[in-house]
Write a structure and sequence with these properties.
By secondary structure, the chain is mainly α. It has helices spanning 2-10, 12-98.
Amino acid sequence: MALFKRAEQAGPLVTGLVVGVATLALAPILLPTLARVGRPVVKAAIKGAILAYQTGRETLAELAEVAEDLLAEARAELAREEEAERAVQAAAAGARATGTDG
């Protein structure tokens, strides 16, 4: 009993030592089992990450294509608006040169 009371007083240090010793004792039994069970889990996680990466790349490529299309459309609209503005200014300048209104 005195040993348990001293262990309780020592607290986390003794607990840590007990866990460490138990881990070392059980490691030869647990490691092969964990390797057998863990390998498929890790492989599935890697496959999921690869699929997520590929899906992300495809989505990003589609998004870039949409953005490029919008940019091209906006530039085309600006060019048409500038051309229309130049035509109005040229017509106004021509009317002033000839002395006619509108």
